Structures
1.
Amino acid sequence: MPSLDNNRNRMLALIATVPVTAALRASYPVTMPLRASILLIAAISALKLWLDRLAPKASYVSYVGTSLVLLCVLALFFAALYLSTAQLVQAFGDNWGQLEAIHRATMGWLNKWGISGISLENRSELIGFGQDVLSNASTILMYLSFIAILVMLGFPEVMRWRRRLITRG
């Protein structure tokens, strides 16, 4: 009867896939930063070990140094995102005439094919687009800040866990 057991296990695994997928999808706002922070901790542990060799007596120096490097990288990313968004907003304002000309040409081409397009009477559509971009950028910044906090709080525990694994193994 091993074939019945195998079939039963396969069917149970197939049935369990649906609620597990739904649970992972529902928990995405929590699991995504956790996964990213775990990967970041694994990537930055080499820097921590290198700083431990420079100051073997004071392990807090390596934690502070690693956290400072993480915060500097995060600040550079925030600055790059802010500057690129500012350039995008300025480019919309500076090139409004060209954007209208491109829009008119595109709408003329679409009308030849019998497709009606969106009228661009005012700047409200582009302003709405800009607001969407900024709201998505702020969401990204919040996720990255949460990930940075998780990394800084979780990094000391990972090193303790690693020492326990080495001593047991």
2.
Amino acid sequence: MSNSVNQSSINSTLGDAFRIARIAMLAIASSLLFHVMIVEVVRRTVEQGPSQLSEFTRLAFYSVAFLSIVGSHMVRILMMRKPVSGIDELANRLKVTTVITAALSELPIVTGLLLFLFDGQYGDFYVLGFISFYLMLRNFPRLSQWESIANAQLGKFTPHETGQ
């Protein structure tokens, strides 16, 4: 009887943290559309001249985007490396990891926006925006992954039956 109560508590704790992490990721992901709207409004209202930035500067901005790809992967590895003492700690760690990787996923489009605002060329913005979109998809929380992590960290675990 206590095992089923404990199992229910684990499912509830993990499910609640998952919902919060998913909402946070969606909120950060929605900023991608906001950045696109800014670029399109500025692009249609301000005349663009030839590129004024050096290739070195553009390369530096792309390097930041590349570092966000590596960084988001490293954050997930480092945050999950240390064992947890219980479901509350695990759920919190998964939630924090999701928010950090979401913020890192947004970095390429922000660098693209800066490139656009400095230079007026929108091609780089869309390339970097695509990278951000890819990272958001890759880092989007999946309940099945969280349950697998819970199995690995906590032992026997019964997944949710809700189909989330």
3.
Amino acid sequence: MKKRSLLRATLAAIVAAGVVSPATPAVAAEYRPQPILYIAAEPGCYSLTLYSKKKVPLGAPKRIFRVSCYSKHHYEIYWAGRMNTRPGNPIPESKESLNLCNAMSETLQIYRRDTRSYNFGPNESTVIGNWLPDKGPEAKRYPKRTVCMYGVSTTEYGFLKEISEPLVRGLE
């Protein structure tokens, strides 16, 4: 009897001290990366979707997720910044910005076919693209901004394929 009451008193003291609570809810925080606006992206690897998707439409997305270059991703952004535009125009010309992205890509070291980084299929090709801000609030918030990206597409250039290794050296 004395042992039982001593045990109850000890357990009551432990619970009262907050060391152990009788009904502790399971606390589990799930990490979910927050998407960012495509025009705000900095150099690195990005995925259009939070979960794996084999291919995505080629075009400017609205939101993208920053991921490791060794995890599944669709885009590799190798340059992002401001470029000169005509006075009064906050949006760069599409052709001029694509020429800038092409010029910037010439200095890149790209993993090519027959490397361990990515095993290209017979109908696959690398793609260089650029993103510009939309007219309105994006152009006001990100004036003169251009984002240059690199990816893998089929030779029809309708989709970007998901890859799990970096294509651009230095982004790893």
4.
Amino acid sequence: MKILGISCFYHDSAACLVVDGEIVAAAQEERFTRVRHDDNFPQNAIDFCLERGGTTSRDLDLVVFYDKPFLKLERLLESYLAFAPSGFRSFITAIPIWLKKKLWTEQLIRKNLDYKEKILFTQHHQAHAASAFYPSPYQEAAFLTVDGVGEWATASFGVGSGNKLEIKAELKFPSSLGLLYSAFTYYLGFKVNSGEYKVMGLAPYGMPKYKNLIYEKLIDLRNDGSFALHSEYFNYTVGLTMTSDKFNQLFGGLPRKPESKLTQKEMDIARSIQEVTEEIMLKMVNHIHKVTGHKFLCLSGGVALNCVANGKILREGPFDDIWIQPAAGDAGSAAGAALYAWYTYTDHHRIVDGVTDSMKGTFLGPEYSDIDIGVMLEKYGARYEKIQDSNELTMKTAELLAHGNVVGWFQGRMEFGPRALGNRSILGDARDPKMQSRMNLKIKFRESFRPFAPSVLAECVSEYFEIGRQSPYMLLTADISKNHRRQITGYEQKLWGIDKLNVIRSDIPAVTHIDYSARLQTVDPITNPLYHQLISDFYKLTQCPVIVNTSFNVRGEPIVCTPEDGFKCFMRTDIDYLVIGHFVLSKKDQPAFSDNEDWQKKYALD
């Protein structure tokens, strides 16, 4: 039985093909169109999924959409009426899009897919819940979904058991933890639905000076984690911005202008909203544990990408363990919608082993043969060395990393979700104190304060990090082990804000944030044997089982998908070497490269 899940028309459009309960393929539309967070109908992603599954749209048994457009329109109309006449500009901007496109989702699917069979529509948070529980390794578990907003729900919790999924309670719009965090993202001068990672990364540079103000003026928080926001401080209900004039006055001025210099004020605000978010999440999970009595918790929704909050839930929460959907945002809801139909609509049995999830390491996207890569390299007249033996290839790459080179690593199937996990990655030596600054400014073209993630051999994780479990999807933070920290002394202890950035805090400084934390990825030999072998070879050479792993893209650009995407990113940046398939390219050996695309202007803002 073939089921296609689709999510689109808000952000991060995606498609997922499930065949007899197995996720066969999944991808975001942005990877094909090169438009970051592309929200259009995911035709390219659908075409890939069908091709990968060896099928056509006419062979599909079900197509499932990830939310209910008419319920979402109902919420929009009721919100505009409730706040009328304010919001008229927003109304005349939004409604034509609904009348032309979003209300006709079923017809659009049938037309674009030439599909005549059954189309189902899940509710938004049903799809999130399904993406959280069904791929998890647990036979029974509680779940929590938290995001901006679906139709009406902004958060939900419930219980999954076998193939059954029951939502027990929901938090409703306009009270939204995701939109609260996004309001501060907007106020701090970052792009909503894209810059939330920056707020999280900026938070450790500040102090929570505004936390009490947030609780006093913006939010009424209850013991169960539910809350109400004071709407007069926000503009997202009917406006074209996230914050109101009253919000701006409360925090001492207009929102920061994008790209302007960050001050201690922004750092303190970031720390404050991050701590508020963590405290609300902890209240939620404590309540869920009390109500459900389950040992395990599954998480999804955009807020579940907040790895600092996730780490706190794991360490301080009441659950024995947690599992987080790696594509926790709306893209993952394409998978959730398809799985919901497989287990709930068609009532298929579900079998799990309690250990292994069904996301296949997120390696669910396209892959390319050496023939494909070779044709592309010849097109650009690239100079390369081909190393056919995989063991020789990984050792060569490890040697390049050990000598301080930055390597673009392009192998196997592309990852599904926002994280690059070792198939579309830029790699560096975690021991190099200058690596973070170099990769941020010369390769990623992004703010210098943003931390990088470590990839660590799964068998060595507890030696370098204070965590006793795996973190395969880079969705948890953990502190650097005390054995690998460097004592901060003298003037270094007195530094504030961004001045803390260049202080060496451990023997893996390139992946150590200023609070000694790291957003880590554990790598095991079963899920990704080639990447595991590479890090193992680096370990043999350096006695260090940790390398820097960041996504293979520049700021504002989606993660690379095709060999050509990878080659262009390599040539446009200061990446030293590209290891793509069995080909190794040195930057200094390449002929002059130019293309007609003004990529620096195109991706100037994220």
